[in-house]
Amino acid sequence: MKKKWIHSTLLVVAVALFTAGCGNDKEASGAGSNSSAQEKKTLKISFNPGPYSDQFKNGVAPYLEKKGYTITYKEFTDGIQPNVAVANGEIDANVFQHSLYLQSINEREKIDLVGVVQVPTPPMGLYSKKHTSLDEVKDGDQVNLPNEPVNMLRALNVLKDVGWITLKDNIDPLQTSLADITSNPHNLKFIATEPAQGPRALEDVDYAAIQGNFAVSNNIKLTTALQLEKMTDPFTNIVAVDSKNKDAQFVKDIIEGYHSDEFQKYIKSNPDYEGYKLPAYFK
């Protein structure tokens, strides 16, 4: 009897220990799953001079903050550093460029960023402080253009649209140069500078083709352009992230923020965004 009692007692203790062990395993497993399920709730995002920072801070950030995100901001003035910073993981996303420009930087820097959502974009425009009409163009007038191949193509297409030049067919956007001009009946003198210098060049040249973000950041109204580009999707700006993060939850939330009713109401009710090309998701 004594042996049976000892065996029974040992059995009860063993079961209790086993049950406790299972409970601890479940707790540990639960803690691990909770930890792995925790979402990234801090965002580092960068902008270049222009309207995209205000769009995000006023129209998208409130949506993300309601979801629990803490957001920090950084500003760049060139087009290479913000892309390298995303590739290196220093920032999570940037907003300043169109997909063709991003493609050129990916190739140049051997990185792999992707665009995940389009944003309202001010088109490139042809501006002048010396002339009030396109009809005033004369032989030898000076025209400032962006010196980056992709954005130079945009500028040349504006000049083509107003009838000042003709261009080769099927120009490679990543290799565009002044050599792609096939006729220049007014003998226009082209001055190619960094895109950000366009507004400053406007003081010295007859005409300047200025990217929309640099026009806006220098208080040049889009409605004062003598001609705005007929913007197509490849030139609509995007939010760029590292390709390995394209399916991450924080990226999905950024996309939702831009698609939200709050963002669209902010853009449509603000006269500062008149003349912008709106993405197809706008209702």
From TrEMBL:
**InterPro entries from the UniProt entry:** Lipoprotein_NlpA
> Is Signal one of the keywords UniProt gives this record?
yes
What CDD domains does the entry give? PBP2_lipoprotein_Gna1946
Q: What single Pfam family name could you report for this chain, choosing any that match? A: Lipoprotein_9
Membrane topology, as annotated, equals: Lipid-anchor
The signal peptide here is 1-19
State the UniProt keywords alphabetically. Lipoprotein, Membrane, Palmitate, Signal
Cellular component, GO annotation: membrane
Instruction: Spell out the protein name for this chain.
Output: Methionine-binding protein
Species this chain originates from: Paenibacillus riograndensis
Ranked from the top, the taxonomy reads: Bacteria, Bacillati, Bacillota, Bacilli, Bacillales
